[in-house]
Amino acid sequence: MKTKSALIADVSHLLIAVGDKFDLEMTGAEDGDAERDFVVAHCPARLEATVRDLPSSAMHLLAVIAEGPVGVVGLASRSGQLKGTVSKYVQRLVEADLVTRTAVPGNRKEVQLALTGDGELVVEAHRRLHDEMDQGIHDFLKAYGNAELQVVATVLRDLLAATKDGVRITRH
């Protein structure tokens, strides 16, 4: 049996994973985006348009690039996304001047990706957002018992599995 702390961490992780799978319709993005507003508020004003135009998946790729040197294939593998999708987002990140591509010496095909100074600013603001969200989720979930947290974790795992099996979840 997991400890309460481990269950809270598990539910927090699952909430984020499931949240990433929902359509924009489910997130209420058409009514404003509090997460995006947070990142914008924690970046220089000159980056507002860039941050607002950046798809969430691309922002998450920035965080993976920040972990260390990586090429497009490695980025796709680390992020669990298709190489074509990652290539498309990398192009947008390069055009936004958040990422640079550098040729790998002795390899004509491979490039190495790195954050620019602006990319580092966006990653830090995004990391701060997730730190605050994690703390808020943790504080909220402390009120529940282990049995209740286990049920929530099971439901979220099932929901995540359903999205991986191609089930689309939309608001009606």
TrEMBL record:
<keyword id="KW-0804">Transcription</keyword>
<protein>
    <submittedName>
        <fullName>MarR family transcriptional regulator</fullName>
    </submittedName>
</protein>
<keyword id="KW-0238">DNA-binding</keyword>
<keyword id="KW-0805">Transcription regulation</keyword>
<feature type="domain" description="HTH marR-type">
    <location>
        <begin position="8"/>
        <end position="161"/>
    </location>
</feature>
<dbReference type="InterPro" id="IPR023187">
    <property type="entry name" value="Tscrpt_reg_MarR-type_CS"/>
</dbReference>
<dbReference type="InterPro" id="IPR036388">
    <property type="entry name" value="WH-like_DNA-bd_sf"/>
</dbReference>
<dbReference type="InterPro" id="IPR052067">
    <property type="entry name" value="Metal_resp_HTH_trans_reg"/>
</dbReference>
<dbReference type="InterPro" id="IPR000835">
    <property type="entry name" value="HTH_MarR-typ"/>
</dbReference>
<dbReference type="GO" id="GO:0003700">
    <property type="term" value="F:DNA-binding transcription factor activity"/>
</dbReference>
<dbReference type="GO" id="GO:0003677">
    <property type="term" value="F:DNA binding"/>
</dbReference>
<dbReference type="Pfam" id="PF12802">
    <property type="entry name" value="MarR_2"/>
</dbReference>
<dbReference type="InterPro" id="IPR036390">
    <property type="entry name" value="WH_DNA-bd_sf"/>
</dbReference>
